[in-house]
Each structure stands twice: as C-alpha cells, then as structure tokens.
Amino acid sequence: MRFDSGRVCLDLVATFTPHEAIPDGDELRLWLAGAGLVPDRTPLARVGPEWAAAFRALRADVETLVRAELLGTDPDEHALARVNALAAGPPPGLCAVRDQEGHLVRELCGGVECGALLAAVARDAVELLTDPGDRALLRACDGDGCTRVYLDTSRGHRRRWCSSERCGNRERVARHRRRALAAGPR
C-alpha cells in the first residue's frame, strides 16, 4: 500500500488500482494504520468485512467526485450526498496517554468506531473538493495504465506521475528503449 497521494481520501481511492487492496478487514487494518487514521498500537479487533465494504463504498463515491472534478463535470449528486452524510458524523476522539516509558502518545478515546473513521476520510474529501487551492493541484497520473490521482505539490506544479520512482521510472525506461530501438544496432 502506498500513502503518497497527498490526501488520505486520495490514498483511499488508490487502494483499488491495480488490484483490490482492501478486500477484507485484515487489509483494512493495515490501511487504517498506514494512513495514520489510528495511532500506533491501537487494537482493531472489530474491523471486519462490513467495515471493508463501507470503506470500499466511500472509496467509490470519492473517486466519482474526484474524477468529475478532474474532468470539469458536475458531481454525481448521489455520491455527493453519501460523502456529505458520512462527513457530518463525529470524527474519532483523540486522547493523550502515557506509554510504558512515561511519554505522551495518542490514543483513540472510546474505542475505534467504523463511522468515526469513515467520517474522517469523508471530511478530508469534502475539504479537498471545496478548497480551490487544493482542487487546482489535483492531477491524474500520466503513467501508462496508471489511474492514480494525487495532489501536485511540486515546485512549479509540473509533476506528471503519481510516483517518480514507479510510474516515472517506467516511463523513462520505456523512452530509453524507444530511443535505443530507433537508433538501431551499433
């Protein structure tokens, strides 16, 4: 799993390509921790298939809205209504507690609730889609076959790929091969 899209909602959208990355609760647990939605050491025993299905549904709605924004088309009203309804929910509560060494660390107060975590991601999507500055930075990867969306925070805002190390490297290798073939044998 990658967390380099620039927003947690875009990182969720990226969990579908090139394959389903959150088919079940086990993979969702990894994504929640990797995305920073739950502090380290948070027990996630209740995360199961119904949670994964809820996050996949939110992912589909966010992707629909983001793609409409990229295309300059009107948003799907049903997807917008579902994201807004989730965003209106209470976010997870954070508490500062002492760890075994006596340092303050973050914990979720009152346990981990699916609705609260969905609200955090949906709220991030609402903030992204309603912020003109961030909307202007939305980009679709130019990599061959890549469908990832990201925020272009590069200097000059000329970033072309979701990841220079992955899609950018593939593109550079392909360009090198095309030039080598065009030059012929030496």
UniProtKB/TrEMBL annotation:
Q: Per the database record, which ranges form the Zinc finger CGNR domain?
A: 138-179
Q: Pfam family of this protein, just one?
A: ABATE
Under SUPFAM superfamilies, the record lists: Jann2411-like (SSF160904)
**What PANTHER family would the database entry show?**
BLL6575 PROTEIN (PTHR35525)
Protein name per its UniProtKB record: RNA-binding Zn ribbon-like protein
Species per Swiss-Prot/TrEMBL record: Streptomyces avidinii
